[in-house]
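Write out the 3D structure for:
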Amino acid sequence: MGHKDQNKGRWYIRNGNRIQGPFPNQLISSYLVLGRIELDTEISQDQEHWAPVRNYKALVPEVVLNAHTSEGAKELMLARVREDERCSQAGDFEDTELDRRENEDQVVKLHRQLRDDVLKSYRTKPELNIRNLVIVITIFIILLLLIIVLRPVNEEAQADCSSTPERGVNWSHCNKQGQNLSGLDLSASRFESSRLNNADFSRARLDNSNFSYADLSQALMQQASMPGVKMVGAILRQTNLQGANLSNADLSYAELEGANLDEAVLDGVRFDNAIWINGETCLSGSTGTCLLPSK
């Protein structure tokens, strides 16, 4: 495959039987720096001819090639922090409206993957040595910068984690896990990136509230009124949404594995790239239901 094709490319990534993409050149390089893929990971532009990333020298940053040395490892760590600045630059790849949307989608996917890396580190390595701690802190910094880029905060509306739970409350980035909010009117409220796992929102009014990137795993939300709610990238694993009204909600990139959606109202709900209750990823354009890839 020639140099011209590499500059033009949209690449698919294959891990075992799982194929993801297409991704632009810059994101392949970013994944290498961030450790999401290895030099032996297979990529392709046509999903027929596959080869390891190392075969495409133009895609492999020099800092990755030198990572086997102690000095190179330090340089790679610094590069991981700098790489976020590259990901956040709108229009880095191409200037069309379609490509800007594609780039934004890839950053959201990267946000999900980085967050999972942090969670996995805490679950599997409770006793971190200095090197691993540096990696976790670096990932956290990148994740924080991505949050700022993707969801700019209105400085006039500051979160107050001690405020009374009421309509329009701003509990963004707050820890309210296990909170009993059953039956309350919390319409037009903000819960972005909050920890709400095991919280009880059953029969609550949450119309037009924002739960983007919040952790709602194992929360109780049955019979809740949630039309127009925003849950982009929210964690809804094993969340009880039975009978909830989610009409016209945005659950793009949300994680719904094991969630209970029995009798829930899903009219107009966006499930673009969400992880469905069976663990599969919904296709872009999924509205009202999850469209899964044909087997």
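The longest strand covers residues 18-24.
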